[in-house]
Design a protein that fits this description.
Layout lengths: L5 H4 L5 E7 L11 E13 L2 E5 L2 E2 L2 E2 L7 E8 L2 E15 L2 E8 L4 E2 L8 E11 L2 H10 L13 E8 L3 E6 L8 E9 L4 E15 L7 E8 L3 H22 L1
Antiparallel strand pairs: 1-2, 1-6, 2-3, 3-8, 4-5, 6-7, 7-8, 7-9, 10-11, 10-13, 11-12, 12-15, 13-14, 14-15
């Protein structure tokens, strides 16, 4: 049971990830996680919720009655998660809906895995110098505008999430280096520019294209509001892309 937390933290219109983890393979290989993007339609009670049926390649996904999924809600208060079971499917006001019953308590989501959205966004970046890294470690922040007066290198973001991004470029940063990522997103309230610090987790040369390097970056020192804006951008862009394909 969810207690009385559901209606306090989740409301109609909130974005939601429906996540299904495959069974652990005998080989020990990490199981794949299937993620569907959807939206809360209505709160029926403190342990029952209506969610718009997700779509995949313009087709409605009929999640089976009785199946359990992990739900991750993106509310104005942060990200919350719970376990829920599909108990019914139906249609109301010409909207195809899933009725889901919560089978665990709603908790604040502290995970570091986010849905990754494939894209092609221009980005400028540079590595922080030793003095900047030291100040960041000591003070936890940098006062000055990071890009001001500094030369930035061009690259292309190929996927983005609330936790980080992946980009390709003609230059290679050192693994573990701290870099400034500067890019623009159309948030629905107009185009907004972001300057976010990230830690380079992995660097490798693109096998199919000599001279290009792929970087995987995890955000650091990112404000919750900025993270939520990025997640909102992903959901809204996914929704627009699905409409275009219909």
């Amino acid at each position: 049971m969810a207690g009385k937390l559901l209606s306090k933290y989740v409301m109609s219109g909130n974005k939601v990830e429906i996540r299904k983890t495959a069974r652990q393979k005998l080989s020990g290989e990490k199981p794949k996680v299937k993620v569907y993007l959807s939206q809360v339609y209505d709160i029926l009670s403190e342990d029952r919720i209506e969610i718009i049926m997700p779509t995949e390649k313009t087709k409605i996904v009929l999640l089976p009655v009785g199946a359990e999924y992990d739900l991750h809600f993106y509310s104005t208060n942060g990200v919350y998660q719970c376990r829920a079971r599909v108990v019914d499917r139906g249609k109301r006001n010409n909207v195809f809906l899933l009725v889901m019953e919560l089978t665990s308590n709603l908790t604040k989501d502290q995970r570091r895995e986010f849905y990754r959205f494939s894209c092609a966004l221009e980005m400028n970046s540079r590595a922080l110098d030793g003095e900047e890294v030291e100040k960041l470690e000591n003070d936890g922040m940098l006062d000055d505008m990071l890009s001001e007066g500094e030369s930035l290198k061009q690259s292309i973001i190929v996927d983005i999430s609330g936790g980080g991004l992946r980009f390709v470029s003609a230059h290679a940063y050192d693994k573990e280096s701290i870099i400034l990522c500067k890019y623009e997103l159309d948030t629905g309230k107009g185009v907004k520019e972001y300057e976010i610090l990230g830690k380079v987790l992995n660097v490798q040369e693109v096998q199919t294209k000599n001279g290009l390097y792929e970087h995987r970056v995890q955000y650091i020192d990112i404000e919750d509001g900025v993270r939520e804006e990025i997640i909102q951008y992903i959901f809204e862009t996914e929704r627009k892309n699905r409409k275009k394909k219909k």
